Amino acid sequence: MNPNQPPRTRIRLRYSKTGRIRFTSHRDVARIWERSLRRTGLPVAQTEGFSPRAKLHFGLALATGYESDAEYLDVDFKGADVAVDEVLKALVSVLPCGIAATGGTVLLPGEMSLQQAVTSCDWDIELIDVTADDVAGWVDRVRGATTIMITRERKGQQITDDLTPQIRALEVGEPTNRGVRLLATLGTQPRAARPSELLTAFEPRYYPVLVRRTRQWIEQDGARLDPLEVGAAPAQHTLVGVQ
Amino acid sequence: MSLWPELELMLPEVSKPARYIGGEGGMVEPEHHPSKVAWLLAYPDTYEIGLPNQGLQILYEILNERDDAVAERAYAPWVDMEAEMRAAGLPLFSVDTHRRAGDFDVLAFNLSAELVYTNLLNCIDLAGAPVRTEQRADDDLLIGAGGHCTYNPEPLADFVDFFVLGDGEEVVSEINAVLCDWKRSGKKGRQSVLRALAAVEGVYVPSLYDVVYEGPALVSVTPRFADVPAVVEKRTVADLAAWPYPKHQLVPLTEVVHDRLNVEVFRGCTRGCRFCQAGMITRPVRERPAEQVRTMVADGLARSGYDEVALTSLSTADFSGIQEVVAATMDCGAGEVSVSLPSLRVDAFTVGLAAQIQRARRTGLTFAPEAGSWRMRQVINKLIDERDLYGAVESAFSQGWRRMKLYFLTGLPTETDVDTLAIGELARNCVELGRSHTKNPSVTVSLGGFVPKPFTPFQWFGQNTVAELQRKIFLLRDDIKRNRGVQMKWHDPKASLVEGIASRGDRRIGRVIEDVWRQGGTFQEWSEHFDYDRWTQAMDRHGLSADWYVHRHRTEHEVLPWDHLSAGLHKDFLWQDWRDALNEVGLEDCRWTPCYDCGACTGYSIEHIVASAVPPAGGSQGTGQVPTDYQPPAAVSVQLSGVGSRTSS
After folding, report:
1. Among residues A66, A181, A191, A12, which one has the least CA distance to residue A116?
2. Which residue from A96, A187, B269, B593 has the fewest beta carbons nearer than 10 Å?
């Protein structure tokens, strides 16, 4: 670190995205955060150059339409002594309905970015118009498969991947009031496997009515950590519950 | 009550689902009640086009502040969403609480452009009401419309129960009072509520008028009852200071056009550009007090979190003391705030202003000389001296801009190929000026086909045919295609023809609009959905001629379809201005020169509200002053204080 650089505090925030607002895109959410942070009046650091922007670093994108209890972003603040609880408190009244900051921690300089550090995500998937038995059979077949090949397009090229190493866990959960719940843990490195890829890779193909990311995990030295647990100090949590 | 549970299942299937979720900052979730009139305010285009509309947002706030009204909003669902809705039997809905349109009393549209007319029919149909007024029963939605297009509402007369002319701030409450009585009496008798609405000044109820034709000619439009006005006058808010709206501008969750804070600094314009309907129908000029502008900007930025504010009007550089307001605006936010000034005048003063506000984000610069030759600019009364334009361009390049966009119209009255080609000459000269400042100067010419509009001096002019507009476009394109640094874009002349049909059509055009809609012709303002053949075939099917409606010159004494409506302007003033245009005689801006009695002030006993008694510095445009001691500025210094004297009128 250049000692002449002005002091900065990088804070990792966790937030939820639930309800109607789940239909906004990743890009929409980035803009919502920019406006919300400006409304707090907190000293967010800006990029240098012709077109200064707030220094926000987002983690894995969440597909439009999915809910989440566990989204993260890192925000750089000017100054060395910005307190996490102060940030969380200021955000309560400015975030739109459906987005709530649920925790935060100060990161040490040099901490890996969210995109690099996160290794897997837990997903809670709701299916309707199917029976629990059918889904259980489907789960058994997925778990028993030696390879599950999926094809996707990247830069005009067809790429084929095997999904099986990315499926860390898969089981039928407690039923919902309208359907069946599927719980999955999917790997994110080197590329995040998507719930939609899992659900359509195998006949019958499932089109979920609701998908919710419930956790993100950083695997470090054999342990699974919440992205807030890699912080310099114990994470702060807001009093605002997850909606 | 809410359709959300059903909509939620559809949204994963459609493009841009955030269009349908509402949830904007500033949104109201009003409590409906049998004693409150429920308004569904609709913009008949996509959410991202319609959400920023300031007129709709102003009425939304005013109505929701009342204790006898509630207002929610709806936008035209995109074609994929419409298909899902129709397949599931779901109607048009509000984005605020996702109520079905049928749960409201009034469906009121903002009409800003002619090409959305088929969307209006589609929205009425989706709302569950019969599209034609005469088929509606007592308990069907009342359909209303306001906005600039309602100055010739005749093409929509068969589909809309009532139109409102002019500023809506005051009249909306008067209309609400009528509807409140009607609702409390159990909505008995649609005719009686329409008669009561017709008695409100500024409200036009087309079904209460008889229309007589003789062959293709319109003979008369006359009221069927003695208490229905023979001429409906527009409404004008005398003092903008009394209406500091929107107070809580909606902040959308997803990206929309004009995604920034918008503060209207004045309404009306008396530059007198003869092609410009907005400048004619919104007179007189009413400035917002500078102090109120500053407050609205500061509050709006703090509330919204935006880092950009547009100071809106028809020509913002004309606002008295614009420099002080801009300077104050840039210093009012916590961080960097950028200011945008749409509709800029063409002169060096303006460039100085632009340099001041774009110190952070320097994008392109846009000017609208509108015509290539001085002769043509005299005809249209856009009196930009060539030296003003070159001065503006020179100072822009010298201050670091490399890209410039110039707006022009073609198909203007008396235009010859010399005038059209003069556009190319102008563009080339601008690029040449840029070469001494930058290696690759770029000038983009944006060319639109002129469509004559009601209540302008050009309302009598026969619009150029599609073939003639296309010929002129290609003539210019071929002339400039070898000039490095000059690019050209143009508007589809076929779309200009359809605009022309709707803009000066009479009631018979309604059948064409309905026909095109029934063939599936929605979103006609979107080039990928515009279908020219549908329009020409529908005109043929109904025995109507584009030559009659669009291309012929109208005569002094013929009855125009909007003669029973009034924007305040005297018809003989407009006719005289039309003759002056043909004689290439300009007309001064009456804000700073004596009144020539166009009718917009005198007829309504109102006057201009302008803080500065003298024209702004730095240009001849529309002020009648042609600079005699012109010298091209080497660089324009930005003055942060002291332009003009500040007196109140």
Report:
1. A191
2. B593
Residue A238 belongs to some domain of the structure: no
The 3-class secondary structure across B5-24, one letter per residue, is: HHHHHHHHHCCCHHHHCCCC
A35: nearest CB among B21, B251, B362? B251
Residue-wise pLDDT tens digits, B513-540: 999 999 999 999 999 999 999 999 999 9
How is residue A150 written in tokens? 């999926």
Residues 6+ apart with CB under 8 A from A239: none
Cβ atoms within 10 A of the Cβ of A14, count? 25
Cβ atoms of residues B281 and B236 within 8 Å = no
**Closest Cα in chain A to B359:** A50
Q: What is the pLDDT of residue A236?
A: 84
- pLDDT bin (cut points 50, 70, 90) of residue B646 is very low
> Domains of chain B, with CATH numbers?
4-233 (3.40.50.280), 260-508+544-604 (3.80.30.20)
- Which range is least confidently modeled, A136-145, A166-175, B110-119, B624-633? B624-633
Nearest by CB: B25 against A46, A65, A96: A96
Looking at residue B326, its pLDDT comes to: 87
Range of the domain at A100: 8-116+225-230
Question: Is A90 within the bounds of a domain?
Answer: yes
From chain A, which residues contact B within 8 Å (Cβ)? Answer: 20-21, 23-25, 27-28, 31-32, 34-39, 41, 46, 50-52, 64-65, 94, 96-98, 209
Contact predicate B419/B450, CB 8 Å: no
* Residues linked to residue B164 through DSSP beta bridges, in sequence order: B203
- Ramachandran area for residue B69 (φ above 0: left; ψ -120 to 50: alpha; else beta): beta
Nearest CA in chain B to A65: B12
* Range from B151-165, B444-458, B498-512, B615-629 carrying the lowest mean pLDDT: B615-629
pLDDT in tens, A127-151: 999 999 999 999 999 999 999 999 8
